[in-house]
Amino acid sequence: MRGFGVGFLLAASVYDLLVAHGLHTTVWPTVTVLLVGLAAVLWPAGHRPLWLTPTLRTAAPAVVSALYTAAVLPADRAEAPFGPGEVAVLLSLLFVAVRHCPWPWALVCGVLDAVALLLLPVRHYRSLQGEVLAFALIGLVLVGLTAGLAAYLRSLDYRRTVAVSETRRAERVAIAADLHDFVAHHVTGILVQTQMARMMADRQPQDLDPVLAGIERAATEALASMRRTVGVLRDTGPESADRRPVGDLAAVTDLVDGFASPAQRTVLHRDPAVSDDLPHEVQAAAFRVVQEALTNVRRHAGDATEVAVRLACPGDRLEVTVTDDGRGGTQLPEAAHGGGFGLVGLTERVTALGGELRAGPRGGVEGEAGWQVTAVFPAGK
To answer: What is the CATH number of domain 249-381?
Structure first.
């Protein structure tokens, strides 16, 4: 398509020169106008100097064309030709001006190109007002169509830019949420186990090693999560999404095992009907539900002695349930309790997949010891 356009411009320009030669007028003004215009249109983008901005490219040829028209207006001057080559060049520059020039230069350069185009008939038909008006009407139609198409494409470019910007922002927010979820889970575990180590230092110093090992493991995992997330933020390639710190149903086992402590027993009940072939986004959301629920147990139910995680697949649904027997006791500092956005974010994630999230007293009975979080997902493959 580009080759056809270049060929048309060159052929039309040659025709302009032949017309000028046939009228027995000097061809140098026509050559100058066409060379300036063709250079502005056809100069390869990769080889343009920095000073050759879209504004200069579209304004200079229009000014040269208008000056040539003004020079032949006096009555004692011979009529000068114009042809399809110069018309095509000015229309091309009008398109470039409206689509690529920064605002408000797009308007200024567009008007210059349009005026230069509409003045062309005056060179040859300045004594024939009817012909001038007819050509001017055709010129107005061409100007309107060209400017309209360029403005439409410019609006598409703007929408595309906004969409890309919003997509990047949403991706960064999602990555930040991933980082928060993972690191908050590990850091909360570090806090709890540190408190336990302090209590055991006086009473059971011989049993400190497993607790300290748990602290070391949680800190290592938190650092690994931060490294992965920062790596994704630095890498804008399409493969970066595969390295986001997300989990799946297989990782739930390690998550539950890593949560256990001398003071809290954790149990995982997985229905054999639960398949590892569920959609990845469903598995990742299920993992997050378990992670956030366990983190909340540490934050708000430090007195819980048993935490049960259940994965079931009734019908065509995946059901994830996390239950504890705590009564709300915790010794964590106030700053470690969180801002209450975890369940809000989980609800948005679950409902986006067509699921449902419920959180409340265990068994649905107020005053009953324990808390239960239940998420239900469509499990269609």
So the answer is: 3.30.565.10
